[in-house]
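[Structure tokenization] protein backbone as discrete codes

[Encoding] learned vocabulary of local backbone shapes

[Begin record] amino acids and matching fold tokens:

___
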Amino acid sequence: MPAFSLDPEQITWCAELRALAAERLKPLAEKGEPGRVNRPLVAALGELGLLARLFDAGALDLCLLRESLAQVCTEAETALALQGLGTHPVAAFGSPAQRARWLPEATAGRAVAAFALTEPGAGSDAAALALDAVPDGRGGWRLHGEKQWISNAPEADFATVFARTTRGAGARGVTAFLVPSDRPGLGGEPLDMLSPHALGTLTFDGVPVGPEDLLGEPDRGFRVAMHTLNLFRPSVGAFAVGMAQAALDAALAHTAARPAFGGRLADLQAVAHRIAEMATRTEAARLLVYAAATAYDEGNPHNTADTDVPRRSAMAKLLATETAQYVVDSAVQLHGARALQRGHLLEHLYREVRAPRIYEGATEVQRTIIARELYASHRRERAREGAPYEEEPSPGDGRDTTSHAEEPTS
């Protein structure tokens, strides 16, 4: 079997993305206010066609896009990913009217999107979602409650909001709505996070929504969430791989040039072996991310029940985010105190790299998903061999413990 590799066009595209990030996006990112939406940066992503690429490309292209931007400008990567996360449900499940109203604005970078799932008491436990959608007696609902750690909140122009329309039904009683920011009763505050990303709260005090605001079907909102997260999970891993590669490159350059003990740091076996370990883990994570994205592209993303997409997506996010944490931390150690100075690349990456191990499914939740999928596959295999078969819950059936702690970064 030949080794997996990108084709020449993909390699060229990644190089072009890194150049664009350095020349066009990084200067805009440096002018932005940490923790707030950088609208000039979002607009530039739209002008360059990168936001539109989110919706007409596959999962592998999304991974290459996020990895390439992350190597050069994490702020641009995060702005792109947050926009994609909030807009994808509209692209995939929106009505013709919703798509016509919001997709052109979002892909041009003129309208900023949010993905509002997580609540103060409901992150990993989707069945505990408590934002209440109360029937208004006229065919619509009133939303009451709070969302927390929400991408681009409270500055977004519209949000994909998940609310409970049927009590006592777990994840099966959740509905997705498209809620414009000018709805009466909608408020919120920005949050000051370790990573300088645009996150905040959203408060709902009787916010009106109607049938025309539905994304998908009533009580089927968890499907909207899982469809979005199954696509974006591998690309969270790609974001992590991009940061790991940036840290590895910095560590290689530093240890090759830094004088130490009559030679260079790279001459020390302990240092060389650490670099080798960093490189090996980064490449392994990259290949697993690409494999998960390819599985998504080659499968049926609208029905993952009989595919290995959830397992591969969880594995990719798990390995890539844990690897990035290790690689960035190792790079800081090899640089010494200079890497801890405010403004140093590694100081920046050290703050950036922590959050992806939590959002869009914490590491512990990914392990739960992986194990569940493996055991479900084992039971199906036994059933094909003639053993008694009993279907067990898999991620997305209402008893899933998939974390949706939104965007402490991308």
